[in-house]
């Protein structure tokens, strides 16, 4: 039986993107929430909560982007010209955020500048990721295996809505992460913010989900045609289940449950996108198999992925295990 290498690689790339979203999402969310915690001590604890893991989380972004270029070169060559602006904005946001993370501890007089860079870079990266997603979902015109759209095609009401939705969702992840990792007044404030963010996130997911099927006929058929219409029932039910766990976890003052429930919302949202997309990698016209590199290249790269991906998973899991539990306010990155 022949091995479907493009399908396997599509799964690997999808997993890398999902891992990046759920892992880097919460530390971007911590940055987005910075303005709501004006006290220096609170901000120090917030940054210390993500200090051991934030840069490792971005490994998945490199894997996803690099893998796309090597494994699906046609997709890479059409998606990037269509989305240069939001992708560059995302990278600039991540750069400012990374530099601010280091420099904030090295200065007193300019600390407010790096606080702004950390919060602004986090917000910019989150919104840019959402806009990129929205522009991809709404479709990229491809003619003769090349991008056939205009420079500003990515900027639409739908892409702006998805940008806002992702930023709100990351704020939810960040607040539930703080609930899990902090104590005292900071914990209580994070819990109150998480309670508000969960309703805002559900509302944003609802708007985007109801909007998406009407962007392309294939989405409408996928969500309301048989047999895939069954997912139109299963996914919302699971989303409501995660929402209930999120609310009860916050109200009952549980530390871990809200964060896991928030992760569940993101996983379900990502699954919904996958259901809408498949088998296209550049909707609505380029499939996984059309965009894939030759099987000889895919097989060669798969050998490396079989070694590399478990290694990344292992050291990521080890880092989270070592730094598990609550943050000691008296110890940290500095």
TrEMBL record:
Q: Name one GO biological process term.
A: aerobic electron transport chain
**Transmembrane ranges?**
6-37, 82-100, 112-134, 154-173, 193-212, 224-247, 259-281, 301-323
**Topology term for the membrane:** Multi-pass membrane protein
Q: Which GO terms describe its molecular function?
A: electron transfer activity; oxidoreductase activity, acting on diphenols and related substances as donors, oxygen as acceptor
What GO cellular component is one of the record's annotations? cytochrome complex
Whether Membrane counts among this entry's keywords is yes
- Taxonomically, the superkingdom here is Bacteria
Q: Which UniProt keywords are listed? A: Cell membrane, Membrane, Transmembrane, Transmembrane helix
Location in the cell: Cell membrane
The Swiss-Prot or TrEMBL record describes its family as follows: Belongs to the cytochrome ubiquinol oxidase subunit 2 family.
Q: Which PANTHER family match?
A: CYTOCHROME BD2 SUBUNIT II
Tell me the protein's name: Cytochrome bd-I ubiquinol oxidase subunit 2 apoprotein
Tell me what organism the protein belongs to: Rhizobium subbaraonis
């Amino acid at each position: 039986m022949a091995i479907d290498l493009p399908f396997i690689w599509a799964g690997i790339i999808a997993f890398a993107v999902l891992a990046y979203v759920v892992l880097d999402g919460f530390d971007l969310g911590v940055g987005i929430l910075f303005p709501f915690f004006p006290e220096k001590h609170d901000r120090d604890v917030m940054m210390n909560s993500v200090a051991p893991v934030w840069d490792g989380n971005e490994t998945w972004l490199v894997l996803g982007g690099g893998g796309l270029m090597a494994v699906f070169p046609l997709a890479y060559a059409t998606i990037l010209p269509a989305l240069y602006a939001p992708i560059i904005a995302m990278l600039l946001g991540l750069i400012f955020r990374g530099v601010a993370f280091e420099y904030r501890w090295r200065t007193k007089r300019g600390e407010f500048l790096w606080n702004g860079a950390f919060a602004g870079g986090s917000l910019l990266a989150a919104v840019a990721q959402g806009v990129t997603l929205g522009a991809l979902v709404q479709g990229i015109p491809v003619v003769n295996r090349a991008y056939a759209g205009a420079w500003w095609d990515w900027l639409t009401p739908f892409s702006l809505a998805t940008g806002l939705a992702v930023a709100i969702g990351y704020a939810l992840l960040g607040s539930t992460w703080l609930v899990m990792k902090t104590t005292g007044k900071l914990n209580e404030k994070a819990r109150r913010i998480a309670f508000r963010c969960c309703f805002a996130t559900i509302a944003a997911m609802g708007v985007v989900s109801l909007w998406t099927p009407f962007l392309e006929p294939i989405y409408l058929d996928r969500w309301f045609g048989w047999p895939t219409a069954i997912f139109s029932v299963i996914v919302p039910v699971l989303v409501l289940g995660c929402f209930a766990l999120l609310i009860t976890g916050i109200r009952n003052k549980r530390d871990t449950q809200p964060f896991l429930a928030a992760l569940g919302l993101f996983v379900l949202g990502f699954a919904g996108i996958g259901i809408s997309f498949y088998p296209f990698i550049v909707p609505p016209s380029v499939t996984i198999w059309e965009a894939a590199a030759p099987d000889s290249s895919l097989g060669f790269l798969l050998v490396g992925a079989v070694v590399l991906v478990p290694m990344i998973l292992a050291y990521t899991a080890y880092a989270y295990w070592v730094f598990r539990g609550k943050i000691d306010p008296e110890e940290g990155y500095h």
